[in-house]
Amino acid sequence: MTPIRPVFIVSDHTGITAEIIGKSLLSQFPGEAFATESLPFVDSLDKAEDAANRIRDAWKVSNLKPLVFSTMTDAAARSVLEASGALVMDVYGHFLAMMIGELGRPAVPVKGQSHSASDAGAYHGRIDAVNFSLAADDGLATQKYEQADLILVGVSRSGKTPTSLYMAMQYGLKVANYPLTPENFEQPGLPDSLKPYMAKLRGLTLRPERLAEIRSERRPNSNYAALETCKRELDLAARMMRDAGVPVLDSSARSVEEIAALLRQSLLKGAR
Amino acid sequence: MTPIRPVFIVSDHTGITAEIIGKSLLSQFPGEAFATESLPFVDSLDKAEDAANRIRDAWKVSNLKPLVFSTMTDAAARSVLEASGALVMDVYGHFLAMMIGELGRPAVPVKGQSHSASDAGAYHGRIDAVNFSLAADDGLATQKYEQADLILVGVSRSGKTPTSLYMAMQYGLKVANYPLTPENFEQPGLPDSLKPYMAKLRGLTLRPERLAEIRSERRPNSNYAALETCKRELDLAARMMRDAGVPVLDSSARSVEEIAALLRQSLLKGAR
Question: What domains are defined for chain B?
Answer without folding.
Answer: 4-115 (3.40.50), 120-271 (3.40.50)
